[in-house]
Specification:
heterodimer; A: alpha+beta; Aldehyde Oxidoreductase, domain 4; 3 domains; eight-stranded mixed beta sheet; 17 helices; 33 strands; globular; B: alpha+beta; DNA polymerase, domain 1; 2 domains; five-stranded mixed beta sheet; 5 strands
């Protein structure tokens, strides 16, 4: 079989899902119709961030006409988790964050459910709460999970029983202590990030149906229907075959719809009213209060270099505020640990990355998984060190950035990348070094740069599977378990399949909704892993189907498979120049001469991919042969100005360049780069705010502002380089998360360039900047 | 709760409905008429995902009661692409990849349709002004602006 150059891969084919999305035909969970048997659910949430539950009285709620059931954690006592099984479905003996589900009410209408939820009486004994991860990590801090030592945990996660530390990841590389004396310059600082929300436009929605057969079906806005099935099945002791998760299109995920949020609550509520589907749709307020957040982080960073600016040593402590339950967050601290240096070549490193329980909402995956958090401090301290040693920030990064085959912080050999090229392109695009005038006399203008790396953060062996099926007319169904959350995953899957099969792109359909009953397995739509991992699986499935077709035709013509190929839906022979349309033969096969029997049959290709080469890391040193599959790297440069009278920032331009390995669909990469830059910029201003009692103060779009159309930069310059990796389809790797990782520190560096003030804590709010400008003016007077 | 018999002219079709006093247009469209293209994003008039046209004017369907609209003309995303042909606006949104997850798209299309009907050749600033109430978390908005501008050069919303 001849392998030909890709024809569709590398092209800007149109999205598979775009016509349904512009015509209102696209189906999200809330759009699925269930008829008159549908009931409505509402959660009763904790008004305290930390308290013991003494008693729950549901009698008044149950007495309300139209109420069908009320469930609580008292009778359930179930725990769930992806990496650490620590999370109850409904709080049982205590609540650990404001907004935690305590009970669930099922009623014939949403308004009755709302009324009934207010009638559930819960008696609490309020406990002291703790919000700062550094305080919470101290031995004397009140313990949120006294039973931590008893929880089941993945073999690569290391909780410290008797503390609030759910994961401690260590790097001990070289000899940091003896390095400081030899360093010409040392920079040191503490940096903080508040928790922020994902803010998808579609709130978390699920519908659960429990039937008398024991079958449970769950429709959910989910990035990871298989992981959701696995977690809920284990938590509620349901056989996987009896729990079916159906996941229609997702209206924005950003990590917030990975794992389980409140979907298990819906299942428990449905089990109380068998035969009736129960809809649980979070309100916008609940979306802010009751879903997972990007974890807060306090990072202590010390870094030193020699007189040439070459990095010598780094000492780091990361305190991730993991919130009330760390079932997912422990792996964020771990990922931050093995990538703790950022994209730099540092010979001596001592680092501790901790995930710490606090009485904040559950910390979980959000676009970048630990990397925006650590790069906020790292990329500012690198600027400070460059200044100390008298080097230009771009040159400093060019010298120190990680390169292919370097031995990186975890001891693994760096996979192929070209970060220098990214830095170079970003710096050129922003006209680095050229001072530009502010647009008004009351403004100051500056430029900043920041670089990043990120590896897909996963267990060592997350798998992807795919199936390619032909229809009679030679159109193709591609079945995957990876989700379309806006990033274009289905388009890339269709593109890869069409390319390998030699059929027109328009003839390929990707099966949706995802359905664990029918879709092939996919671990999760997270970690920017679909183009790479699912892409490999689709490519393998299409190659399998192609092989079946060519073998049948070769046999039919009495030719060799190597002499055949498929183009535009026709099998052609380079040798005999014969042609055979795929039409019909992909189902019915081909007849032998004089119809003496038949060959072939329905073509079904199957493929899978699972990385088999990731190794364990030493728990004391964090060293190992291969911590991760690969890294994606990139550079962002920002040109901004600040209004001296208001402290308001105005980002004028973001130049954003990433090494994608191979661009399967260049324009879709640009859509990620543009959307990510605005998401990154917005994240620099965002903060979930709490009062001193841990109550969320800004649970609405008015009080928790995300970027609007009026806030965007005048220009986003996107670009990419292509340094192929060994284990991706045509060398491709993911880029969906990376595009917002370092926007905030690039802005902070530009702000410093403009006004000479460093901001170590996010958000970069106008009031904070204004007050700092005032203080600087007063000092100068 | 008392129910009211009302008539809405939805995408040109006369619809007779029996709605409770407190039912918003959003719920009437989605639950009574099964027109689920109009999205529920906040039910507080803050995100624009439920934008529809009432007598040609953009309105958050979550902020208006169905009973108030007896006899009025309502246009939703399902009413675009008459006869299966996409409007220039829909075409440009598709062509320029101004859509990612697609949840905000129907509301933005309706707000932009109203703009182009009112002002077929808007300046970029006018597009921004018309869409400032429509939140999108995915795209970064520039392609949405570009799509509206490109559609305006091709003859507007419809």
């Amino acid at each position: 079989m001849r392998s030909s150059e890709p024809k569709l891969v590398g092209q800007n084919v149109s999205r598979t899902d775009v016509v349904e999305k512009v015509t209102g035909c696209a189906v999200f969970v809330d759009d699925v119709q269930f008829g008159p048997s549908l009931l409505h659910g509402r959660l009763v949430r904790s008004p305290h961030p930390h308290a013991l539950i003494k008693h729950i009285d549901v009698s008044k709620a149950l007495a309300l006409p139209g109420v069908r059931a009320v469930v609580t954690g008292q009778e359930l006592k179930a725990r769930m988790g992806l990496y650490l099984i620590d999370r109850p479905i409904f709080a049982d003996d205590r609540v650990r964050y404001y907004g935690e589900p305590v009970a669930g009410v099922v009623a014939t209408s949403e308004s009755i459910a709302v009324k009934a939820a207010r009638l559930v009486e819960v008696e609490y004994e309020v406990l002291p709460a703790i919000f700062d991860p550094v305080e919470a990590a101290q031995p004397e801090a009140p313990k949120l999970h006294p039973e931590l030592g008893d929880y089941s945990v993945a073999n690569f996660i290391f909780p410290v029983p008797g503390t609030n530390i759910s994961e401690q990841f260590k790097i001990r590389k070289g000899d940091v202590e003896s390095c400081w004396e030899g360093c010409t310059s040392v920079a040191e600082g503490r940096f903080r990030l508040p928790p922020i929300e994902h803010v998808p436009l579609e709130t978390h929605t699920s519908v659960a149906l429990s039937e008398k057969t024991g079958q449970v079906t769950l429709w959910a806005s989910s990035q990871s229907p298989f992981a959701m099935r696995d977690m809920i099945a284990q938590g509620l002791d349901i056989p996987h075959s009896k729990l079916r998760v159906i996941a229609p299109l997702v209206g924005g995920g950003f990590g917030g719809k990975a794992g389980v949020t409140m979907e298990a609550c819906a299942v428990v509520m449905a089990q109380a009213v068998q035969g009736h589907p129960v809809k649980l749709r979070l309100t916008r307020e609940e979306e802010f209060v009751g879903t997972s957040v990007r974890q807060s982080l306090v990072s202590d960073i010390k870094v030193g270099c020699d007189q040439d600016g070459s990095l010598q040593a780094m000492e780091l402590t990361y305190y991730f505020g993991g919130g009330a339950y760390n079932d997912y967050g422990v792996n964020i601290a771990r990922a931050a640990g093995y990538s703790c240096t950022g994209p730099y070549d540092v010979p001596n490193v001592k680092a501790d990355s901790l995930c710490v329980y606090t009485n904040h909402p559950v910390g979980s995956a959000m676009r970048g998984f630990g990397m925006p958090e650590i790069h906020w401090g790292l990329e500012q301290i690198m600027d400070r060190l460059a200044e100390e040693v008298g080097m230009d920030p771009v040159e400093f990064r060019q010298i120190n950035c990680v390169r292919t085959d370097d031995e990186i912080v975890s001891g693994m050999k760096m996979t192929p990348i070209d970060l220098e090229a990214c830095i170079d392109k970003a710096a050129k695009a922003i006209q680095w070094g050229k001072k530009e005038d502010p647009t008004a006399p009351n403004k100051k203008r500056g430029k900043g740069i920041a670089i990043m790396w990120k590896a897909p953060a996963m267990p060592p062996n997350p798998g992807s599977a795919a199936v390619v099926r032909f229809n009679e007319d030679a159109t193709v169904n591609v079945e995957v378990g990876g989700q379309e959350i806006g990033q274009g995953a289905f388009t890339v899957a269709a593109q890869i399949a069409a390319d390998v099969l030699g059929v027109p792109y328009e003839d390929v359909t990707v099966a949706s909704p995802l359905d664990t009953k029918y879709s092939p397995y996919e671990w999760q739509t997270v970690a920017s892993r679909l183009t790479w991992s699912m892409g490999n699986a689709v490519k393998a499935a299409a190659e399998d189907a192609r092989k079946q077709i060519l073998e049948t035709v070769a046999d039919h013509w009495d030719e060799e498979v190597e002499d055949l190929t498929i183009q535009d839906g026709l099998v052609i022979s380079f040798k005999s120049e014969r042609e055979q349309p795929l039409d019909k033969m992909v189902i019915y096969g081909l007849p032998n001469e004089d119809f003496e029997g038949w060959k072939g049959g329905p073509v079904v290709g199957r493929g899978h991919f699972m990385p088999t080469y990731v190794t364990n890391l030493d728990p004391e040193t964090g060293q190992g042969t291969r911590a991760v599959v690969h890294y994606t790297v990139g550079a962002q440069a920002v040109d901004l100005e600040v209004d001296l009278e208001t402290g308001q920032l105005d980002v004028l331009k973001i130049a954003s360049v990433y090494d994608v390995g191979k661009a399967i669909n260049p324009d879709l990469i640009m859509t990620q780069i543009e959307g990510g830059a605005v998401h990154g910029m917005s994240s620099a201003y965002e903060s979930l705010k709490f009062d001193q009692n841990g109550i969320v103060l800004n649970p609405s779009f008015v009080d928790y502002r995300i970027a609007t159309i009026a806030d965007i930069p005048q220009e986003i310059h996107g670009d990419y380089v292509e340094t192929p990796i060994d284990d991706g389809p045509w060398g491709a790797r993911g880029v969906g998360e990376h595009v917002m990782v370092q926007t905030a520190p690039a802005m902070a560096n530009a702000l410093y360039d403009a006004v000479g003030i460093r901001f170590s804590d996010l958000p970069l709010s106008a009031d904070k900047i204004y007050l700092a400008l005032e203080e600087k003016l007063n000092q100068e007077d | 709760m008392a129910k009211h018999a009302i008539t809405l002219i939805v995408n040109g079709l006369q619809e007779e409905l029996l709605v409770p006093s407190n039912m918003t247009l959003l719920h009437a469209l989605r639950e009574e008429l099964g027109l689920t293209g109009t999205k529920n994003g906040c039910e507080a008039g803050e995100c624009g995902a439920c934008t529809v046209l009432v007598n040609g004017e953009p309105m958050n369907a979550c902020l208006v009661l169905a009973v108030e609209l007896d006899g009025q003309q309502i246009s939703t995303v399902e009413g675009l692409a008459e006869g299966g042909t996409l409007t220039p606006l829909q075409e440009k949104f598709a062509e320029l990849n101004a859509v990612q997850c697609g949840y905000c798209t129907p509301g933005i299309l309706m707000a932009a349709t109203a703009l182009l009907n009112r002002n077929p050749q808007p300046q970029e600033e006018e597009v921004i002004e018309a869409l400032v109430g429509n939140l999108c978390r995915c795209t970064g908005y520039q392609r949405i602006i570009d799509a509206v501008m490109a559609a305006s050069r091709q003859g507007g919303g419809r």
